[in-house]
Specification:
The complex is a heterodimer. By secondary structure, chain A is mainly α. Chain A is built from 12 helices and no strands. Classes of the chains: A mainly alpha, B mainly alpha.
Chain lengths: ~290, ~290
Amino acid sequence: MQSSPRRGLRNASLVLIPFAAFVGLFLLYPTLVVLYKAVTPGGTLGFDAMARALSGTYRTGFINSITLSGTSALIGGVIGLLLALTVKSLRRPAWLRPTLDSWSAVASQLGGVALAFAFIATIGAQGFLTKILKGFGINAGDYGISPTGFWGLVVVYLYFQIPLMFLVTMPAVNGLRDTWREAAAITGSSAFRYWRSVVFPLLAPAALGGVLLLFVNAFTAYATVYVLNPSGALVPLQIRFLMQGNVITGEEDLGNAIVAWVIVLLMASLITMTLLQRRTLTWTRS
Amino acid sequence: MSKNAAPPADVPRHARWRSVRPASVVTSAFLVIVALYFLVPMLAMARFAFQNVPMALLTPEKLLEGWSFSGLWTALSDPGIISATKTSVLLVVFAIALNLALLLPLAIITEVHNPRLRPVLSAVTLLPWVIPPIALVVGVAATFRAAVPWFLASDFSLVPFYALWAMPFTYRALDAGLQAISARTLYEAARTMGASLTTIIARVIIPNIGAAIAAASALTAAMVLGEFAFASLLLKTTLPTEMVNYQRGDPRGGLALALIVMILTALALGLVVRSLRRRGLTVHTAGM
């Protein structure tokens, strides 16, 4: 070996230092400043702003955001997982799997302006589906199916949640070996027993981890909801309001405190997700 | 993942399992409903964008009337849209360049030299998930706006942040590429023949991970062309923010433009993903 460990270290630091400096300057520094300001409102240590960020309209914002993200994550999680399981069990048609694969990669990225437009054209007041339903005498708005209603937003979010769940659980679903199913059958287990004792314990960590990722994904989605309902009481929209609105003294501390809570929430979700994922990896990689 | 070869189709199965399988009717119905859910909004959007008949006047007989691309052409010749498109294209180019400049050497060195850095890198590339645009924008406004006002005044101040958020996608794509070509073995082979590290990177490794680099770039481009929150809150004019503006005055043209941008992005991403799959590369396009 020509390369001494010292040389390797030098090469590593040569590329690591610019990278670390970059992440530090543009990601960690602004974040730490916000976190610091959140717990030192008005310059002195205190949890005043942090408490205010969870009261009144801001509490409503957090509750709404968590409900919306949670609902869309659960429904999207179930449908996405079912889709992955269905696709695995199908060998024909041959084009189905690669198509779904590519489509999911694309659709999971689609949350944004275009998606909001698409749903305005579908379930908006002048939407295509709204009109068809009206033809059957159904007023979609009565069921909350409008782009500004709660269930309307869930329907919109599912458009990127389902493909994302499909993508993140497909490796785990693929990891279920056909031989295990056969082994279960040969040893006389019923199909139910196979699902309960083999599939469920193996897929549960991956599925739960996927749902948490979906939750984070929906919680931080901004463009879609901004286009559909800019005055809604959701955390991302409240952050916008505080940022653009009147810079009354103390208000920027409130903005910082809300962001601090968001980061805490996301970090907790992602750490749990990573721990769950690690459990899955131990058997999908073998 | 390479051991996932499908078993031959004629493997005998236990008869009982066949009968317990969910009826194919249910499976097909499920797939059809999911397909409809994904197709209908796109079709509705296309109708709105390209058919010049208001929804209120649309009847089944009129379904084929009034289709034209006029809305799209009007939108495409709008000076605001043209300049926002230029900005966004430049942002894409710069973000890809910066992203690759930072991550490509790091990913290669980590793979061939210092595998111990791997967990550190994975963790760092997860950070953008914890600190998404809507959260970071507050910190950026609070720090950079006061300290370096000229920086945030430029549209291109978005570049470093876009490079940052693309990292989870890029690192995973590059890493998959390096794993697939056994970069470490290639490195050691070239080393034994006396090649320098720079030569190895430039002439052995990079030419072999072209597909992964293309995937990383496509994912970055898609991310930049879709990012709205950060640009909008920092009052920058990029293609997504300008599309929202434009759509207020001309809904039909706005939707047509959004649809075309989306289709082009989807095609580019889809092509890249397919070409990667054909090479047997698993790229985590979810950025996880």
